[in-house]
Amino acid sequence: MTDSPAADLLRYAAFTADPDGGNPAGVVLDDTGLDDATRLAVAAELGYSETAFLAPAAAGGRSFTVRYFSPKAEVPFCGHATVAAAVAVAERTGVGELLFETKAGPVPVLVEQGPHGLLSATLTSVEPQVHQVAAADLAEALAALGWHEDELDPLLPPRIAYAGARHLVLAAGTRARLADLAYDFERLAALMTRLDLTTLQLVHRESRRVFHVRDPFPVGGVVEDPATGAAAAAFGAYLRELDGIDDGELTLHQGADLGRPGVLRVELRPGDPRIRVSGTAVAITADDGRGPDRG
Question: Count of alpha carbons within 13 Å of 165, Cβ hemisphere only?
Fold first, then answer.
């Protein structure tokens, strides 16, 4: 690393083929010598929802220790920054299999060449979990959002889902309810801190395998995350348990409400509890100043 980590900071948009779409992430390909205070300062100055900091595990190898920092705190796992970092590595060393050692556990990533020269990365989550949410905590979440319980989809009940990070899944009964998102930033952040949640995974079902999603992220200092791979993986585990979907692909549309549309592909395989999340990523050659909204 140089004396200025910002000089080695790359910018990528994940889950999109357009630098102005999807979710922007910072990527530092070799953070040797950086301490956590510096990592946090770099992430805060950039202002994206997460920045990935990589440390090569072996000279010339394809394995990396990866840390993820939001503008406010470290998070155990971040899907969109994983996709961004994997594509950044592959652009320099070639496509193929990578291994990211994260605080949530080992995450294999396969980078492949797609149509029109785009690179696509598929991450395989750690083993997921799905838990009940206490009635009082659900009531507090709805109050912070300004939602009412009768606006939820009764076929998709609230749960806390985990596939590297914890997310409260709430399903809106209508697309209009999902689109109208204005919440109490500090109140929701306090609840999420108490429950150790990374985002809320707010969803609306368009069809059995197609969803629109949004992810408030006040604990990271960001009003909303435009495309959230960790939450997508957790949501795949949620659907397996709550809706019986155990194979095939889901399509999640996210970011349109923010003017940064992106598409996340979620794959479930019979006999394998892990969830696979795929998407393209492209370099952002100049900061357009339109990163995620800050709180």
Answer: 26
